[in-house]
Amino acid sequence: MSKTLIYKFGGASVKDAAALVNLADILRNRLRNNLVIVVSAMGKSTNALEEILRMKLENKDYSINSTNLKDFHLSICRDLFPESHMIFPQIKNYFIQLNHELNKALSAVNYDEFYDRIISFGELVSSRIVMEYLCLQNLLVLWQDARELVVTNSDFRFAKVNWEETKRNCQLQLKPKLAQFPVLTQGFIGRDRQGKTTTLGREGSDFTAAILAACLQAVSVTIWKDVPGVLNADPKRFPSAQLFDELGYAQAAEMTYYGASVIHPKTIKPLANSRIPLFVRSFVDPDLPGTKIHQNAPIQNLAAIILKRDQLLLSFKVTDFTFIEERHISLIYEKLRQLKLSVNMLQTSAISISIVLDTQLFKLQQLISELKGEFEIKYNEGMELVTVLHPQKELLVDLLGEDEIFLEQTTRNTFQAVRKAKIS
Ligand code: ASP
Ligand code: MG
């Protein structure tokens, strides 16, 4: 029996008709049973769905947005399928269902649950189109609803995996199918015990690939990307970025923690626990080896630069001439936990606490209103968090130039600074 492999294709690898043709080309010689293919929503369609949700929350008319999103999918299909193909009514059907869901009442209380139900349509439509296109190309794959496999708690938008039940589903439902066919499924989505759709956090499809790999005891996971592998900086901003041929799990996990967007941060742990190697390879040059992330990789001392945009710098100043105490920190952290906001950087001084967060403005207002009795709160939007692992002096001078630094921190192997994000 062949060993189980997992392939994951993200939004960029299914963003238009040419991308789907390319994906089929990659699979043509690689398709076999015991292969699981995980696909994301097409291009930026998850962002488009988030925008629709935002408009709905603000009672704005989102009908043009939803029509545009439908047309985006239909127009990709017009380039790939004959006019009479059943994918066209299928897409229309998905959008009828989406609009039906959108018409239901939304409030701040049920927002997260509503969000997951709506946002999952991106993955469902995409996986349906990819499956039909592959079959049209004589590449037979079975379509699997990932929600029947991935069981989670009801922590909507950030659902936690129920490993035991997910493993059972993978072994009992997926494995027998895989023995005969390759299976194509969605990333990012799951289902709670009540049968409600949940999601694993934005960009969570990589994590799904890792979950399925761990539950199926796969021999490897391959994430197909628009970059040649894991680089020591974003090649779009640093053209001279260098490729890592190999990386250890810990080093890769550290890079994702600081914001390297090449792999989702939660992906590494389940793979490391099961010692399953992760390959990051280029869908543009599929014959290149890419990066192998595994147990026995040598330590890399190459400096790595990670830039994280859309950051918010918040400072909390005590107002009553006391100093910062543990109680202040735990008060702030407790509110952050309740709002599901996580801290990317923290610094305390005698009278203030500064934290850096991903920007989520509606939560910010709530945070401020709940803590303004205790602190004087100031914030800066549009910041960028710069992290350099294994930094060298000249590199930092080059990187930061004359930029105004709002907050800075250096530890043995890591340098971090917050500056105003540059427009590029
Ligand atoms: N489509 C989802 C997102 O964009 C999941 C993913 O792409 O990994 O967040
Ligand atoms: Mg995506």
TrEMBL record:
NCBIfam families: asp_kinases (TIGR00657). Its EC number is 2.7.2.4. This is Aspartokinase. InterPro entries: AceGlu_kinase-like_sf, Asp/Glu/Uridylate_kinase, Asp_kinase, AsparK_Bifunc_asparK/hSer_DH. It comes from the Bacteria. Pathway: Amino-acid biosynthesis; L-lysine biosynthesis via DAP pathway; (S)-tetrahydrodipicolinate from L-aspartate: step 1/4; Amino-acid biosynthesis; L-threonine biosynthesis; L-threonine from L-aspartate: step 1/5; Amino-acid biosynthesis; L-methionine biosynthesis via de novo pathway; L-homoserine from L-aspartate: step 1/3. The lineage of its organism: Bacteria, Pseudomonadati, Bacteroidota, Cytophagia, Cytophagales. It is an enzyme of class 2 (transferase).
